[in-house]
């Protein structure tokens, strides 16, 4: 409980400047708070990197921004000030309860978590920081996905303010972010549908897909990681600000999303652009928001281009392309190396909610012309389906963003919004309630989801083809004839609750840590020596698996890491580094350590200093 309260204090500190600025601008939503908090962090840490200072300068700047925001808010308060509705208190309370329960399923930090823990630790412990300081290798290059470590910076401030070790922050911060994730999901439904009941539908469906269907807390158990935070926090916040036409905040959140996870900002633009095309008659209403989303995303991508050009997977060579096709082959339909597309089973792999949304997607055509939410849900989903199921489009798209990233765009089809809208349309009759419960039970039993790495069986391919073909027909029909169907969001929310009840039962039944302990964790004595004996910023040579944990446990650099957790760039050369360390393991060749500047080594679990 003490650690929870300390983390709560640290989290409040990191979001306080954003809350104050949002209030100063008359914006009470959690989405605006998140956007301006990220903007404050960007300003503070840009100064740190430019001046080569430490975290303390960032904290000082954040405190100044907090005071300025409070002063501006106090000075501009008045009865005539127009503010949007704040978030529902019940959603915050639900999120707090969920966060408490997540505490016990947040397992050991392994895999990608160690990569991110290492970066947070360097931001907390090192002085004279610059963008290269958080890298794994002292002589390597920037990671194109985390060149500006914006999300890591928030976690670093949480660690400093709470006095909690970065490893504990990465493991347990999801419990503090879960309430925010719930509120942002609810706000996105309210902003799109203009209905609080619809917000409840979107919240329940989102929890079903991302938290309960996978079991073990789903992605909510790893909310502290940048990729998960980008998808569960920044993406719904961006949707809220876009549809509320808060142009400045929209620009800020898309710029932040592009820095936290560059491809996700690009992926979110796909359904938004499709929405804008279908709503071209209302271009004046959405044009400024769309421009505010595109410009900062484009600016970040232009800044990242020289780094991206150094990666092997961008515009890959024939050999690298064949390697990627073999690696991700279970998620693809491959004719040859110039003709491949995403397997249709990928879209239904997240379980009952995704399958139902795909099958019911054509129904949204009856609400397309009078309702902007239908244009986003229907048009956005069809646009993503076309992009990944038309080989010519998918091949060029994967060449631009890498095959590893291109397959993830399927997760940005707005299926949750589509199903929430479909339930509201079907709720003209009370029969939708028992049918929703029965349908939820059947789909949960038949297609509970496929959440392991790779694709074993996925969802039904037929559902994807129904969504694509039926969605195209529905769009054409809606353009020809206008419909007068009305949605009933209150009854639709009840139907959504009944539909996801079996998914929630499944998630509660599997409410346990996915991984309880790291079997390759370093001994406490070795960790203590790495933190007290080895100078900060020194280079350590060790076996690859050990090196990965060295960077997470101490602010140190290493010679090589597992290639799956390193940017494959011409400066990093992860395969060359791994081969060199394997050679050192077998021969103890001192030339390897000298080549990479290593001054300390670990062999057989023992730390020792290298002599020149």
Pick out its properties:
26 helices, two-stranded antiparallel ribbon, single chain, mainly alpha, 2 domains, 4-stranded mixed β-sheet, 612 residues
Whole-number tally of structural domains: 2
Largest sheet: 4 strands, mixed
Provide the spatial order of strands within the biggest beta sheet: 4-3-5-6
What is the average of the pLDDT values? 92
Cα Rg: 24 Å
In terms of per-residue confidence, which ranges show pLDDT below 50 for 5 or more consecutive residues? 79-83
CA-CA gap between termini: 49 Å
Number of helices: 26
Q: Class by helix and strand content?
A: mainly alpha
Global geometry: globular
Share in helix: 55-70%
| Number of DSSP-assigned strands | 6
What order do the helices and strands come in, and which of them pair?
Blueprint: H1 2-24, H2 30-51, H3 55-76, H4 89-102, H5 112-125, H6 150-162, H7 166-172, H8 174-193, H9 196-212, H10 226-243, H11 247-260, H12 262-278, H13 283-308, H14 318-327, E1 332-336, E2 339-342, H15 352-360, H16 372-389, H17 391-401, H18 403-406, H19 415-426, H20 432-446, H21 461-480, H22 489-509, H23 524-532, E3 539-541, H24 544-553, E4 557-558, H25 574-587, H26 590-595, E5 600-603, E6 606-609
Parallel strand pairs: 3-4, 3-5
Antiparallel strand pairs: 1-2, 5-6
Helix pairs in contact: 1-2, 1-3, 1-6, 2-3, 2-6, 2-10, 2-11, 4-8, 5-6, 5-7, 5-24, 8-9, 8-10, 9-19, 9-22, 10-11, 11-12, 11-13, 12-13, 12-16, 15-19, 15-20, 15-21, 16-17, 16-19, 16-21, 19-22, 20-22
């Amino acid at each position: 409980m003490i650690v929870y309260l300390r983390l709560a204090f640290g989290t409040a500190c990191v979001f306080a400047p954003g809350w104050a600025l949002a209030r100063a601008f008359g914006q009470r939503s959690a989405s605006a708070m998140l956007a301006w908090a990220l903007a404050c962090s960007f300003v503070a840490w840009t100064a740190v990197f430019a001046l080569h200072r430490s975290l303390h300068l960032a904290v000082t700047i954040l405190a100044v921004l907090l005071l300025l925001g409070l002063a501006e808010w106090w000075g501009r308060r008045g009865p005539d000030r127009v503010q949007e509705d704040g978030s529902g208190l019940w959603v915050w309370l639900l999120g707090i309860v969920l966060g408490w329960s997540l505490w016990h399923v947040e397992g050991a930090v392994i895999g990608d978590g160690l990569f991110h823990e290492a970066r947070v630790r360097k931001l907390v412990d090192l002085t004279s920081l610059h963008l290269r300081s958080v890298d794994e290798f002292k002589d390597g290059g920037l990671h194109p996905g985390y060149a500006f470590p914006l999300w890591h910076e928030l976690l670093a401030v949480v660690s400093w303010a709470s006095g909690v070790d970065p490893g504990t922050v990465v493991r347990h911060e999801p419990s503090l972010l879960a309430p925010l994730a719930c509120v942002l999901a609810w706000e996105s439904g309210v902003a799109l549908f203009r209905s609080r009941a619809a917000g409840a539908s979107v919240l329940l469906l989102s929890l079903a897909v991302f938290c309960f269907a996978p079991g073990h807390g789903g992605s909510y158990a790893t909310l502290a990681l940048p990729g998960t935070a980008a998808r569960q926090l920044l993406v719904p916040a961006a949707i809220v600000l876009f549809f509320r036409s808060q142009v400045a905040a929209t620009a800020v959140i898309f710029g932040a999303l592009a820095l936290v996870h560059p491809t996700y900002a690009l992926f979110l633009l796909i359904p938004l652009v499709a929405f804008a095309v279908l709503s071209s008659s209302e271009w004046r209403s959405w044009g400024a928001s769309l421009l505010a989303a595109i410009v900062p995303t484009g600016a970040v991508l232009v800044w990242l281009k020289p780094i991206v050009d150094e990666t092997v997977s961008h515009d890959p060579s024939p050999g690298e392309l064949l390697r990627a096709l073999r690696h991700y082959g279970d998620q693809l339909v491959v004719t040859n190396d110039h003709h491949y597309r995403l397997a249709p089973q990928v879209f239904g792999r997240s379980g009952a909610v995704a399958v139902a949304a795909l099958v019911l997607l054509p129904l949204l055509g009856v609400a397309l012309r009078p309702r902007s939410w239908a244009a986003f849900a229907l048009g956005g989903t069809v646009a993503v389906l076309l992009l990944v199921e038309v080989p010519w489009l998918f091949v060029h798209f994967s060449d631009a963003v890498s095959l590893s990233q291109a397959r993830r765009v399927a997760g940005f089809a707005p299926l949750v919004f589509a199903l929430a809208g479909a339930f509201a349309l079907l709720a003209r009759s009370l029969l939708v309630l028992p049918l929703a419960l029965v349908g939820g039970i059947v789909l949960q039993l038949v297609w509970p989801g496929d959440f392991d790495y790779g694709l074993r069986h996925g969802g039904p391919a037929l559902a994807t083809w129904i969504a694509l073909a039926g969605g195209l027909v529905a769009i054409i029909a809606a353009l020809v004839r206008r419909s007068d169907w009305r949605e009933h969001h209150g009854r639709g929310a009840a139907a959504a609750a009944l539909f996801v009840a079996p998914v929630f039962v499944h998630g509660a039944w599997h409410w346990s840590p996915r991984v309880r302990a790291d079997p390759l964790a370093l001994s406490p004595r070795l960790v203590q020596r790495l933190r007290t004996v080895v100078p900060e910023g020194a280079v350590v040579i060790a076996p690859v698996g050990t090196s990965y944990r060295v960077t997470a446990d101490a602010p140190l650099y290493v010679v090589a890491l597992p290639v799956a957790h390193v940017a494959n760039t011409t400066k990093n050369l992860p395969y060359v580094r791994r081969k060199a360390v394997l050679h050192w393991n077998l021969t103890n060749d001192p030339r390897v350590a000298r080549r990479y500047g290593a001054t300390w080594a670990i062999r057989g679990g023992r730390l020792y200093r290298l002599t020149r």
